[in-house]
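hey can u run this one w/ iron/sulfur cluster bound, need the structure tokens asap thx
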Amino acid sequence: MEHQECANHSIECTVTQCQNHCGQENFCSLHKIKVGTHEKNPSMEQCTDCLSYVKK
Ligand code: SF4
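ok here u go:
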């Protein structure tokens, strides 16, 4: 996937290891993302995942 320069200030993100991370600022460069969970009954923030993550 091609790296995008534009930070989407509606999606703050600190996962700099993701291909979709803006780089200079802690924001995602996508227009929208999908969030999901790997748990049956998510009970804390660690139970949720960004499903739009792409390995760099
Ligand atoms: S796709 Fe998800 S993990 Fe990747 S930069 Fe955007 S919000 Fe962060």
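The chain has a mean pLDDT of 93. anyway lmk if its weird
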